[in-house]
């Protein structure tokens, strides 16, 4: 990609957020509402709210624990979801057995499991991680199953002809063929995980972004509450960008094939 193309791409990415922030700044500038303060007031208190205090700053005591819970739950869901999806997708008998159960669990809203998990696992970090695992698991698992089911039969026959079986077949054929669908599930799960991270911290916690936002709301520190929402948005954007970088590397072969097909067409 040329430098000009990179600059155009960067401009496209930041254009809409810049316009929305400018619109928020202008339309809120004269606001006298207690609950919707001007954006300039929110921006003014953001550094002291999250970065003041050195090692005791909220960016350390609240954001990092939230991020650790999110990545732990998301990572566990990815391992279990991809592993189980490979097994279920590769076996029509197993798929027919478990599909009704999977659809039942998929239909249960993850926030509804929080009271149950509080009763079972208490109010410590284990409960919050389990909530994230439960919510992130289903998009990863179901997309992996569909990706494995869609493996090209011709390629499968070719592997069989060359005697490629077991782990070699899974690595070179199944995972590679299903990887676009798996990455789709992982992308969906990341958004779900961020939401559940906040919800679980709002129920029962002593730190975390969700806990802090609720504390600001309860003490009527409205500008500070808005800074928490902004921090959440920035965290989501950063994680989405990191995921896109990883996805581009993982699916480089796939994008190359699509580009070749478009050029040939």
Can you put this structure into words, describing what you see?
There is one protein chain. Helix 8 packs parallel to helix 9 and helix 9 (209-218) runs antiparallel to helix 10. It is built from eleven helices and no strands. The chain has a single domain, classed as MetI-like fold. The protein has helices at 3-28, 39-50, 58-90, 92-107, 114-121, 125-149, 153-161, 166-203, 209-218, 222-250, 252-264. It is globular. Helix content is 83%, strand content 0%. The protein has 265 residues and is mainly alpha-helical. The model has no long low-confidence stretch (mean pLDDT 87). The protein starts with a helix and ends with a helix.
Give a short overview.
The protein has 265 residues and is mainly alpha-helical. The chain contains eleven helices and no strands.
List keywords for this structure.
mainly alpha; 11 helices; MetI-like fold; 265 residues; 0% strand
CATH superfamily: MetI-like
Radius of gyration, taken over Cα atoms and rounded to an integer in Å: 23 Å
Q: On the 0-100 scale, what is the average pLDDT? A: 87
**Cα separation of the termini:** 21 Å
SS element count, helices: 11
CATH topology: MetI-like fold
Shape: globular
Largest sheet data: none
Instruction: Report the CATH architecture.
Output: Orthogonal Bundle
Q: What level of helicity do the residues show? A: over 70%
């Amino acid at each position: 990609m040329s430098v000009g193309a990179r600059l155009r791409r960067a401009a496209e990415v930041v254009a809409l957020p810049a316009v929305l922030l400018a619109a928020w700044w202008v339309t809120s500038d004269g606001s006298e509402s207690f609950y919707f303060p001007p954006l300039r007031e929110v921006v003014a208190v953001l550094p002291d709210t999250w970065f003041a205090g050195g090692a005791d700053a909220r960016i350390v005591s609240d954001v990092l624990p939230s991020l650790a819970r999110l990545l732990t739950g998301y990572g566990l869901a990815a391992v279990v979801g991809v592993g189980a999806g490979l097994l279920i997708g590769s076996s029509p008998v197993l798929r027919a057995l478990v599909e009704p159960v999977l659809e039942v669990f998929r239909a249960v809203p993850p926030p509804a499991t929080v009271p149950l998990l509080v009763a079972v696992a208490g109010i410590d970090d284990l409960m919050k991680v389990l909530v994230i695992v439960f919510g992130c698991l289903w998009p990863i698992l179901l997309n992996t199953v569909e990706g494995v089911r869609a493996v090209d039969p011709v390629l499968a026959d070719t592997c069989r002809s060359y005697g490629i079986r077991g782990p070699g077949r899974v690595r070179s054929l199944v995972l590679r063929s299903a990887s676009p669908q798996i990455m789709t599930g992982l992308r969906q799960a990341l958004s779900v995980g961020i939401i559940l991270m906040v919800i679980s911290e709002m129920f029962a916690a002593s730190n975390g972004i969700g806990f802090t936002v609720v504390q600001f709301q309860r003490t009527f520190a409205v500008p500070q509450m808005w800074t928490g929402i902004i921090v959440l948005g920035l965290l989501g954007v950063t994680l989405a960008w990191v995921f896109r970088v990883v996805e581009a590397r993982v699916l480089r072969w796939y994008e190359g094939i699509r580009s070749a097909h478009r050029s040939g067409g």
